[in-house]
Design a protein that fits this description.
This protein is an all-alpha fold. The chain is about 90% helix and about 0% strand. The longest helix is centred in the first third of the chain and has 33 residues. The chain is flat. The N and C termini lie far apart (about 60 Å).
Length: about 110
C-alpha cells in the first residue's frame, strides 16, 4: 500500500512539473513569435535576472532559514528571524543601488 501511495504522489509531482514547464515553454514560443528581437531579448534578460536573484535569495536567505528554523528553540527564533530580515534588507539595498546606477547610466 505504501508503494502505491508513493507512486501516486510522485506521478502528481511529475504531472505538475510537466504542466508548469510546458506552459513556460509555450509562453516563450508565443513571446518569441510576437515580440520584436529587441523586446524578446529584454524579456529574456529580465527573466534570467529574476532567476539569478531568486537563486541568490534562496541560497543565502530562504534555505538556511528553513533548515535552522525547524531545529532552533523558541528563545532563539526571534533572533534568527530578525537576522533574516536584516539580510533581506541588505540584499534589497544592494539591488536598489545597483538598479539606480543602471537606470541613470542610460
Amino acid at each position: 500500500m505504501g508503494g502505491k501511495h508513493f507512486l501516486s504522489r510522485a506521478s502528481w509531482t511529475l504531472v505538475d512539473q510537466c504542466v508548469v514547464s510546458g506552459g513556460n515553454f509555450l509562453l516563450n514560443v508565443l513571446l518569441a513569435r510576437t515580440l520584436s528581437q529587441e523586446d524578446y531579448g529584454e524579456f529574456a534578460l529580465f527573466l534570467g535576472a529574476i532567476f539569478l536573484l531568486r537563486a541568490v535569495d534562496y541560497s543565502f536567505i530562504s534555505y538556511p532559514l528553513s533548515v535552522r528554523l525547524c531545529v532552533v528553540d523558541d528563545q532563539e527564533r526571534p533572533r534568527l528571524l530578525g537576522n533574516t530580515v536584516v539580510l533581506t534588507m541588505a540584499l534589497s539595498l544592494v539591488l536598489l543601488v545597483f538598479n539606480r546606477r543602471q537606470l541613470f547610466a542610460r
